[in-house]
Amino acid sequence: MKLGFIGCGNMASAIMGGVIRNGIFRPEEMIGADSYKTALDKVSETLGIQVTTDNRRVAEECEVLVLSVKPQFYEEVIAQIRSAVDENKIIITIAPGKTLEWLGQKFEKPVKIVRTMPNTPALVGEGITAACANVQVSEEELAYVCSILRGFGEVEVIPEHLMDVVVSVSGSSPAYVFMMIEAMADAAVADGMARAQAYRFASQAVLGSAKMVLETGKHPGELKDMVCSPGGTTIEAVRVLEEKGFRSSLFEAMKACAKKAREM
Ligand SMILES: NC(=O)C1=CN([C@@H]2O[C@H](COP(=O)(O)OP(=O)(O)OC[C@H]3O[C@@H](n4cnc5c(N)ncnc54)[C@H](OP(=O)(O)O)[C@@H]3O)[C@@H](O)[C@H]2O)C=CC1
Ligand SMILES: O=C(O)[C@@H]1CCC=N1
After folding, report:
1. Mind listing the pLDDT tens digit of every residue in the chain (264 residues)?
2. Rounded to an integer, what distance in angstroms lies between the CA atom of residue 48 and that of residue 41?
3. CA pair distance 229, 132, nearest whole angstrom
4. Report field, pTM of the whole predicted structure over 0.90
5. Is the C-beta atom of 172 inside 6 A of ligand 2?
């Protein structure tokens, strides 16, 4: 077994889907454990990977192990698998707040750990993942892990102190974007458009706008100004967004998000 997951919920299945779709690993090279049978049935049926309820089995059999349970279960899971993890295995973590130092203490011995923060767009190969590693991980090993992570989107190696910022700017931010798309579609429905069509228009506008930022290299403010015809419709929308605190809402939401990550 090459790649194992302990926890087969939303984020793990997004990663599994991306890794398989991009041919990084075959389903038969992957195994997932979960305490929730429905989650196991879902990944087994939809992705064809092996599944088990035995966390230790995954730790024993896999070269690379993703800890994909909620942060509050990390301590319990590490205690279960600790003796099955030797100096040759690589642990990938995806939980906010769980520092390399904390993780190293919980394993109670030197273990190779790569701390990451992915996001659910991994499912469609458009994720972005930040990664940092402890001293036990060599440059080659970090490059190998990054090649796995690159299977479901972009990857950047960053200093660990930025990891809480990454939670708010990319780990959690798909939720804010989905809320925006939902609200935009609601407004379009209120103005008479069919809901399915409204989701298509709103989503494509968001996708195209993100692509413009990435591909033109222009400042987002300049791109916004290009949409605002003098005396036109967009500047009216911008005026109301400013009045209702659109930017400030995002600013405060992301500060709260990063603060929560720091406290975990
Ligand atoms: N969702 C996201 O967008 C992102 C999530 N993450 C991180 O990914 C991790 C998983 O999050 P997410 O996928 O959303 O959570 P989910 O609840 O969807 O998945 C976690 C799964 O782990 C199971 N589980 C709980 N305890 C154990 C255990 N002791 N042994 C084995 N399995 C267990 C859960 O079962 P049960 O439901 O019964 O508890 C659940 O099926 C978290 O650390 C989260 O912070 C990181 C980036 C983005
Ligand atoms: O909500 C959470 O805690 C996780 C971390 C980033 C996205 N989801």
Report:
1. 689 999 999 999 989 998 998 889 999 999 999 999 999 999 999 999 999 999 999 999 999 999 999 999 999 999 999 999 999 999 999 999 999 999 999 999 999 999 999 999 998 889 999 999 999 999 999 999 999 999 899 999 999 999 999 999 999 999 999 999 999 999 999 999 999 999 999 999 999 999 999 999 999 999 999 999 999 999 999 999 999 999 999 999 999 999 999 999
2. 10
3. 44
4. yes
5. yes
C-alpha–C-alpha distance, residues 130 and 171, integer Å: 9
How many CA atoms are closer than 13 Å to the CA of 18, on its beta-carbon side?
A: 26
- Between the two ends of the chain, the Cα-to-Cα distance in Å is 31
**Whose C-alpha lies nearest to ligand 2, atom 8?**
172
Which atom, in ligand 2's list, is nearest to the CA of 95? 5
For 20, other C-beta atoms within 10 Å of its C-beta total 21
Q: Taking a C-beta distance cutoff of 8 angstroms, is the pair 34, 8 a contact? A: yes
